Amino acid sequence: MKVYLTRPLRPDGRDERTSLRQDRSYDVLAIECDTFRIVNQFGEPTLHDIDAFEIFNADEPKFWIHTDVDGCRYSGPADWDRPGFFEDWHDGVADVRNTFRDDIMRYYPQVIGDLVDLQGGVQ
Q: What per-residue confidence (pLDDT) applies to 115?
Protein backbone atom coordinates (compact mmCIF):
# COMPACT_ATOMS: atom_id res chain seq x y z
CA MET A 1 0.00 0.00 0.00
CA LYS A 2 1.40 3.39 -0.97
CA VAL A 3 0.18 6.86 -0.01
CA TYR A 4 0.94 10.54 -0.53
CA LEU A 5 0.75 13.09 2.26
CA THR A 6 -1.84 15.51 0.84
CA ARG A 7 -3.55 17.06 3.88
CA PRO A 8 -0.77 17.64 6.43
CA LEU A 9 -2.64 20.07 8.70
CA ARG A 10 -4.90 18.14 11.06
CA PRO A 11 -8.10 19.57 12.59
CA ASP A 12 -6.51 19.42 16.05
CA GLY A 13 -3.63 21.66 14.91
CA ARG A 14 -1.00 18.96 14.41
CA ASP A 15 1.15 19.24 11.32
CA GLU A 16 2.21 15.92 9.79
CA ARG A 17 5.11 17.72 8.08
CA THR A 18 7.07 17.71 11.34
CA SER A 19 8.12 14.14 10.51
CA LEU A 20 6.96 13.53 6.92
CA ARG A 21 7.54 15.33 3.65
CA GLN A 22 4.62 16.37 1.50
CA ASP A 23 6.49 15.93 -1.79
CA ARG A 24 7.00 12.16 -1.66
CA SER A 25 5.20 8.84 -1.40
CA TYR A 26 5.25 6.51 1.59
CA ASP A 27 4.84 2.78 2.05
CA VAL A 28 2.22 1.92 4.65
CA LEU A 29 3.82 -0.64 6.96
CA ALA A 30 0.63 -1.35 8.92
CA ILE A 31 -2.86 -0.04 9.61
CA GLU A 32 -3.79 0.55 13.24
CA CYS A 33 -7.43 1.56 13.61
CA ASP A 34 -7.62 4.99 11.94
CA THR A 35 -3.88 5.49 11.48
CA PHE A 36 -1.15 4.36 9.12
CA ARG A 37 2.19 3.12 10.47
CA ILE A 38 4.88 4.76 8.29
CA VAL A 39 8.64 5.11 8.65
CA ASN A 40 9.13 8.86 8.97
CA GLN A 41 12.03 10.91 7.65
CA PHE A 42 13.97 10.20 10.86
CA GLY A 43 13.72 6.42 10.39
CA GLU A 44 11.10 5.93 13.11
CA PRO A 45 7.93 3.85 12.67
CA THR A 46 5.30 6.41 13.62
CA LEU A 47 1.50 6.64 13.42
CA HIS A 48 -0.21 9.15 11.16
CA ASP A 49 -3.88 10.01 10.67
CA ILE A 50 -5.31 8.19 7.64
CA ASP A 51 -7.20 11.33 6.61
CA ALA A 52 -3.90 13.13 5.94
CA PHE A 53 -3.15 10.87 2.97
CA GLU A 54 -4.28 10.01 -0.51
CA ILE A 55 -3.95 6.32 -1.31
CA PHE A 56 -2.53 5.75 -4.77
CA ASN A 57 -1.91 2.01 -4.45
CA ALA A 58 -4.44 0.28 -2.20
CA ASP A 59 -2.97 -3.21 -2.61
CA GLU A 60 -2.32 -4.63 0.83
CA PRO A 61 0.64 -7.00 1.17
CA LYS A 62 -0.27 -10.68 1.22
CA PHE A 63 1.91 -11.22 4.31
CA TRP A 64 -0.24 -8.89 6.43
CA ILE A 65 -2.44 -10.47 9.04
CA HIS A 66 -5.70 -8.81 10.04
CA THR A 67 -7.26 -8.56 13.48
CA ASP A 68 -10.21 -6.66 14.89
CA VAL A 69 -10.04 -5.18 18.38
CA ASP A 70 -13.14 -3.41 19.68
CA GLY A 71 -14.23 -2.50 16.15
CA CYS A 72 -10.80 -1.25 15.07
CA ARG A 73 -8.95 -2.97 12.26
CA TYR A 74 -5.28 -3.81 12.72
CA SER A 75 -3.29 -5.08 9.73
CA GLY A 76 0.43 -5.63 9.33
CA PRO A 77 3.22 -8.18 9.64
CA ALA A 78 2.56 -10.99 12.13
CA ASP A 79 5.62 -10.23 14.27
CA TRP A 80 4.22 -6.79 15.09
CA ASP A 81 0.76 -8.05 16.07
CA ARG A 82 1.11 -7.93 19.82
CA PRO A 83 0.24 -5.26 22.36
CA GLY A 84 3.15 -2.95 23.07
CA PHE A 85 5.37 -3.93 20.13
CA PHE A 86 5.94 -0.35 18.96
CA GLU A 87 6.06 1.04 22.47
CA ASP A 88 8.93 -1.40 23.05
CA TRP A 89 10.54 -0.26 19.79
CA HIS A 90 10.41 3.37 20.93
CA ASP A 91 11.77 2.31 24.36
CA GLY A 92 14.77 0.76 22.59
CA VAL A 93 14.11 -2.91 23.43
CA ALA A 94 16.84 -4.69 21.44
CA ASP A 95 14.87 -7.82 20.47
CA VAL A 96 11.97 -5.73 19.19
CA ARG A 97 14.29 -3.40 17.29
CA ASN A 98 16.01 -6.42 15.70
CA THR A 99 12.67 -7.98 14.73
CA PHE A 100 11.50 -4.71 13.20
CA ARG A 101 14.77 -4.26 11.28
CA ASP A 102 14.65 -7.83 9.97
CA ASP A 103 11.02 -7.46 8.90
CA ILE A 104 11.71 -4.15 7.15
CA MET A 105 14.58 -5.74 5.23
CA ARG A 106 12.44 -8.78 4.34
CA TYR A 107 9.11 -7.13 3.55
CA TYR A 108 9.89 -3.48 2.78
CA PRO A 109 13.43 -3.23 1.34
CA GLN A 110 12.42 -0.12 -0.62
CA VAL A 111 11.96 1.73 2.70
CA ILE A 112 15.68 1.34 3.40
CA GLY A 113 16.47 2.96 0.05
CA ASP A 114 14.00 5.77 0.76
CA LEU A 115 15.72 6.51 4.08
CA VAL A 116 19.13 6.64 2.43
CA ASP A 117 17.72 9.01 -0.20
CA LEU A 118 16.17 11.22 2.48
CA GLN A 119 19.35 11.36 4.52
CA GLY A 120 21.35 12.21 1.41
CA GLY A 121 18.86 14.84 0.34
CA VAL A 122 18.19 13.11 -2.98
CA GLN A 123 14.39 13.08 -2.79
A: 62
